[in-house]
Specification:
320 residues, alpha+beta, 2 domains, seven-stranded mixed β-sheet, 39% helix, 19% strand, globular
Length: 320
């Protein structure tokens, strides 16, 4: 792995954290992700862009002063205007091994949010495994904080429009017609006709700014992460993000929203309560492949899946 961050002495050594065994490989994955967080934060600070720790990363900062021991990814979130500005300056600010990945920067890649990748590593979810052309380095998820419509009718219409356009975009790359039936197949066929006359990037640009960002230039009472799916627990009073403070995250100090605990309470409930048994918790991305020591262009995904099939076959034989 190629990183710029100077790690604390002994950071890569295995250890138990809150009853969960963190092995050397996970520590290496964390090292790459800490480096991505540091690089991202430095670029934002340099360009006066607002950002906040988000999701499990914010929870980890509050409850563990770093990673949740069984977590394997990192998340940040940015107000729409700062997020859009980062897209504009990303090519200038990020160079190898860093790569700012969006649905506009790579053909065949579809995410409704951005990701900062380390190209000297491998981090790939199964939906991208058969896409040789896209970057598959270990990633930092960069989400966007968009305005949520005031009033339940406007909010319902906003939600429907997001889902309708997102489905059409998904049909461009991440869906196979043989997997569909009924009305879904009809929608898929209509989408293919649409893409004969319109580019994916044209539709994505409209989706990103005019659909997701439809209310972001207005002063709405609520803001939210509405890129992945419509989740009421990931929508918050806009005043929660009217400022920031710094939290310790492993060896870094990173920004958290002013009302961080209120954000976490709405998202997770009693977020300070630990699971009763952490020893058998699966990874956050249980279907993801991580190799911090091998660049994704050198990683043999086919051989990896063959190994998984052989392991599954041996398990099944033992159960007979």
């Amino acid at each position: 792995m190629q990183i710029e961050l100077e790690l604390p002495v002994g950071f890569l050594e295995p250890e138990f954290r809150d009853g969960f065994y963190v092995d050397e490989k996970r520590k290496k994955i964390w090292a790459v992700e800490l480096d991505l967080l540091k690089k991202f934060s430095d670029v934002c600070e340099k360009n006066n862009l607002s950002y906040y720790l988000d999701g499990g990363t914010l929870l980890g900062a509050i409850r563990h002063q770093g990673f949740i021991p069984w977590d394997d990814d990192v998340d940040v979130i940015m107000p729409r205007k700062d997020y859009d500005k980062l897209w504009e300056i990303a090519e200038k600010e990020f160079s190898y091994p860093y790569f700012f990945q969006t649905s506009m920067s790579e053909e065949g890649f579809f995410r409704t949010h951005a990701q900062l990748r380390n190209s000297s590593t491998t981090g790939v979810v199964l939906i991208d495994a058969e896409k040789p052309q896209i970057n598959k380095g270990i990633w930092l998820d960069v989400f966007v904080l968009d305005g949520v419509a005031d009033g339940w009718i406007a909010r319902k219409l906003q939600r429907r429009k997001i889902q309708r356009v997102k489905t059409r975009l998904k049909y461009a790359y991440d869906t196979k017609e043989e997997e569909l039936s009924g009305i879904q197949k009809i929608k898929y066929q209509k989408a293919q006709k649409y893409f004969k006359n319109h580019s994916f990037k044209e539709l994505f640009n409209y989706f990103n700014h005019k659909v997701l960002g439809a209310y972001s230039s207005k002063k709405t009472k609520w803001v939210g992460d509405i890129t992945l799916k419509w989740r009421p627990n990931c929508q918050w009073p806009s005043v929660y993000y009217d400022g920031y403070f710094y939290l310790d995250f492993e060896c870094l100090k990173l920004r958290a929203p002013l009302f961080a605990c209120e954000v976490m309470t709405r998202q997770y409930g009693n977020f300070m309560k630990m699971p009763a048994d952490v020893s058998n918790i699966r990874n956050t991305h249980g279907n993801a492949i991580f190799d911090p020591d091998t660049p994704y262009r050198e990683f043999d995904i086919d051989a990896y899946f063959e190994m998984l099939r052989e392991e599954q076959s041996l398990i099944e034989e033992e159960q007979v």
